[in-house]
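Purpose: get a first structural picture of the assembly so the mutagenesis plan has something to point at.
Setup: two entries, given in the order below. No constraints added.
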Amino acid sequence: MTAVTGIALLIFLALSVPIAIALGLSGLVGINSVDIPFVVLPQRMVVGLSHFTLIALPFFIFAGTLMDQGGISSRLIRMVRAYVGHITGGVAIVTVIAAMIFSSLSGSGSATTAALGSILIPAMIARGYSRPFSASVQAVSGELGIIIPPSITFILFGVATDTSIGDLFLAGVIPGLLIGGSLIVTSYFLAKNKGYVGVEKSSWSERIAATREAMWALFMPVIVLGGIYSGVFTATEASVIAVGYAFIAGTFIYREITWPKFKKAIKETLISSGMIMFIIGTASVFSWVLTRAQVPQNLAMAFANFSASPYVFLLIINLFLFVVGMFFDAAPAVVVLAGILTPIAEKFGIDPVHFGVIFAVNMAFGMVTPPVGVNLFVACKIANISMEQMVRDLMPFWVVLVIDLLLITYLPQVSLWLPSLVK
Amino acid sequence: MIGRRSLSRTVGKKRKSKRVQMKTENITAEVTRTDRSMIDRYLRLLRGINVGTEWFGGVLLVVMSLITLASVLSRYVANVSFAWIEEGAVFIMVWVVVFGASLAIEARHMIAVEALASRFFGVPLKILKTLVGLISMAFISVLIWAGWNMTEIAEMQFSPTLPWLSMFWVYVAIPVGGGLMLLNFLGNTLKIWTQEQADKQSEVLE
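Result (structure tokens, whole complex):
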């Protein structure tokens, strides 16, 4: 049952069948091979989707698209540029910092890349930064979207493993700052080496004006994270409050959300959440088939026999997740694998919240690794180059990301310190 | 400019394949002129259906947001919580998902591993895409059929917090949404042969 299911999945994926369909079909192949009635297919899909916590996913997407339609991307960029734009490699540093802030409004990496990249990649190219460098900076900064809360990946991980999404969100903050900080430093030295300069320095009055413009957007992460941190509300409640806030800020304060823009935000939300959640539906069928075939237990036994050291386990898991992330999108990978791997990790004494962060960082890494890095794809399209052309400029960023990943993996405090303060 | 040579090489390759593609497009266009009106009529009808889906889905999304927001606020302001609101919102979400998924198919936002497809151009690519379309339609057909069978089972089940609501109304989202997805997969497959496809890879949006 497991073998046919796995082989079927690989064949369908290789043929470029959409991931949602490939997961559902190979699940069906598995169901068929043991004569279970096909009604489990719609049944598992509906059961997999009917979690109240999952509702945070469309809501955070909705809040993000409303913020974007409300003209927040350009205001954020203007504000960050006013402060750091004049430094060597200024526009690249602006890209990383803007991505860090935007990630705290949006739950997805490629949405972050797309929203900011359409403005910043042309801006970098206009300042004489090479196209591959500009696309690389934008793509690697976009991955912060799924590490800095709110994050779709954390929501899915929390639902799949019954881990507190609020804890996962808090655990993502410091790793997100760590990765963001290391990307800023890397961009600075690369830019210095290549002779990329910044923009004209802004005066303090310009800075204050730009900050005031962006203030309402900066307030949103304060509400969401502050609310979760202080225990005022859960992550799910925060998601719908974020929708209300984004709507009010965009419509009544910035006065940019008009009826056509509102309709556009709704359509984008429907498409993005429909696409991801349809994958979640069929991925639940697929993981149900694996669970029925006792794959988790067998895998746990194999791991236990192989090595008793949590360090070795974490190394193997990182390699495995890295390869998975290379070919898979974060959503199906989390739905299928998180439930299987987390209990094994717990047997090795690894905190599930820490494991969730390791999982998300690996998935983020996969977004900037060929052949199927979504962020690379989005950034290449904006910069109008091919993925192969980016590889050389991506290399230094990869090295830095590997170091970050190892730090996050082997120093649990990086992830667990902030959530431990709440308890 | 860095990488200019390799840039122009790939661009040249793409341009050539595009020319070939356009040539075949012209031939197919002439041969199938008579069938085109039927297909065009279907695609226009499909767009109309999708506009309806956008409206239905959009209204449901707004309702889902409003009732969840109301439930959160009522808990803080009046300290009352309604379990049925949470469950109702989840049921609406199932409908939002199937509507959204069929719109995502129309917008070609279904993510796929494109490593193989990106090596094909022209007619072979069209054949591969058609094959993928047929596989997708086969899966959705099974989903519709099984989903309909499931609604017959679910008719006897009732929601725990909304006792008057038969689970039929939740599960029927699968065959209805499946039907919309099937129409859109068919539409996309027809478009492969009748419309000029400028970009070879499907859009990615997470």
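The mean pLDDT of chain B is 80.
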